Amino acid sequence: MPLRWNNGYLFLLLPLSAGVVLLVSYLFYYDGLNFTGSYDPPAAVDVSLDDLILPTLTVKSFTGTPEQRSGLLVVDRMHGNNFSDDEMVPFLSRVASHGFETRSIGVNGVSALDRLAILEAELKRADTLAIILPTVPFNDREIGLIQDFIEKDGKVILIGDPARSSVMNSIAEPLGFIFQEGFLYNLIEHELNYRNIFLRDFRADPLTEGLEQITFYTAGSIKPGKSGIPIVTGDANTYSSIIDRTAPFAPVVKSEDGQVLAISDSSFFIPPRNTITDNSRFIANIADFLTDVDRSFSLGDAPHFFRGRVDVITGDFAPPTAASQMKALLDAQDIPADVKQVEDLLSDTVFIGLYEDFPDVAQFLLPAGVSVGATIETPFTTPLPIPGTGLMLLHTGSDGRQVLVVLADSESSLSQLLFLFQTGELDSGLVSDRVGVFQLR
């Protein structure tokens, strides 16, 4: 007679089977069977009830009077960035209150080629770049553009968050930082949840001016490179969920040259958390840092090295239409320009002419080692023939005044040179950051 199971036996068998499976899985994963490659969590932190500190939550709103500055902050939106615009309103509004323009660049889903073109064009005019929680990695050419931007004294802020997926280290590591996995926590003192940590250990820095305590809700740790400086660190009771060590963990780090700021927490920017403890003051300090920038420019950044009204002056041998053509090109880039007859030493200026006008602009060319005679002489090339060529030089005065000199061998060449200026295709002729000699058809 076949063996039959009734429902009572089944109800007993199923829980027992599930228990055996769970027991074997536990032993296998947690090294019970000496399985190599198992995860070893940090040692548990013992906390007695007497050690717990009940917080008194403080809501603050810092206003202050932002110093007015001109410039542009661009926000990367091309790398699957894992945040919403609403979350960054307190931060971006504070930047805008300084008089800075803020603009998102690109959209998610654009091709790598399009990303590169957009980033290259925007960094020519930007003063500051914000990279927040990217989920699409940065490629080598994008990294190179950002490194060049930093070398020109542009500033970068990197905002990560261990509670949100990102590939931040694809750009952070080449810049000297590593956003580490795991979140920071404090079992002794916290705001309702042990992951909501209070931070009071501040390095003396403009970023920490006026701070007594800030609150991070999903903080992680950042490992700085050789030149990184921890700005905010956790106390002795702040631990990592992944890293087993007792040294202070730093969720805010700055590069030694002061050009890059890295923060491993996005939550404190988000209302209403931006008003808890001194968070709003910290956000204001971040905005101060990002807008206090003195970008340097190269000829390849044309025409964005002009930041105010520009005077356009033509030489004696220049065609009559050259000045109006340059004015139109600048106006199209939202750079106001006026055609003038006399140089104003307080205004940014464009000089346009033929090589015969060289004596009128020699004071800008000769200090750079550039001269025009039977050939074009530069410190960077052998003597170059005159026919079918154009020359550009960017001069920056000690007072920050920008002077662009544009010369060519003929009216036809000058027209072609202005077309290259219009399209931003100057890289083909650059012989240095500030000098270009162009072969024209």
Explain the layout of strands and helices:
Elements: H1 7-29, E1 72-76, H2 89-96, E2 101-105, H3 112-123, E3 128-132, H4 140-151, E4 155-160, H5 169-172, E5 177-179, E6 184-186, E7 197-199, E8 201-202, E9 214-216, E10 222-224, E11 228-233, E12 238-240, E13 252-255, E14 260-264, H6 279-291, E15 310-314, H7 322-332, E16 337-339, E17 348-354, H8 358-365, E18 371-372, E19 376-377, E20 389-396, E21 402-408, H9 411-423, E22 435-439
Parallel strand pairs: 1-2, 1-3, 3-4, 4-14, 15-16, 15-17, 17-21
Antiparallel strand pairs: 5-10, 6-12, 7-9, 8-11, 11-13, 13-14, 18-19, 20-21, 20-22
Helix pairs in contact: 2-6, 3-4, 7-9
The name of the CATH architecture of the largest domain is 3-Layer(aba) Sandwich
What is the CA-atom radius of gyration, in angstroms? 30 Å
The CATH topology annotation of the largest domain reads as Rossmann fold
What spatial order of strands do you see in the largest sheet?
2-1-3-4-14-13-11-8
Count of distinct strands: 22
CATH class of the largest domain: Alpha Beta
Largest sheet: 8 strands, mixed
The end-to-end span amounts to: 101 Å
Number of helices: 9
Q: Residue ranges: pLDDT <50 for 5 or more in a row?
A: 1-14, 20-39, 47-51
Question: What is the total number of structural domains?
Answer: 2
The amount of beta strand, in percent, is: 15-25%
What level of helicity do the residues show?
10-25%
Average per-residue pLDDT, rounded, comes to 88
User: How would you describe the shape?
Assistant: elongated
Class from secondary-structure proportions: alpha/beta
Fourth CATH level, the homologous superfamily of the largest domain = Class I glutamine amidotransferase (GATase) domain
